[in-house]
Amino acid sequence: MTRADVAAQLDHHLYGAMSAADAVLPAMLDAGAGTLLFTTGITSVDPWPEYGNVGIGAAALRNWSVNLGKGLAGTGVTVAHVAIGVWIGDSAPDGYGHLPATEIASRFYALHQAQTSNDLIIS
Predict the structure, then answer these.
(1) Model pTM?
(2) Averaged in consecutive runs of 10 residues, what is the pLDDT profile of the chain (123 residues)?
(3) Is the CATH code 3.40.50.620 the one for domain 3-122?
(4) DSSP string over 29-72
């Protein structure tokens, strides 16, 4: 892995999420309500060498979003990070877990409904 490999993942994962948050956060803060949900794969919390550069970008997003949630405490805006560690669908290769997309979606909705900043691993 090279610096360029990591930089591309930081640009994709972290800076993309920061730009999206910058676009919506002022209105959410004015309203005193809203939920920001950020998603990565499991390598944000459980590094896999074969996905080293992706994991670095995903871990940076996870760290930033958890910090953002803590920083926004008491504002009415909540932040959740979700690391998905299963195949999405009705089946997976041998040795891997899976969940239907509807189940994963219900977990995202539950995070929104809870109105507390969280860090969730779906495995």
Answers:
(1) 0.91
(2) 94 96 98 97 94 94 96 96 96 94 96 89 92
(3) no
(4) HHHT-EEEEEEEEGGGTS--GGGHHHHHHHHHHHHHHHHHHHHT
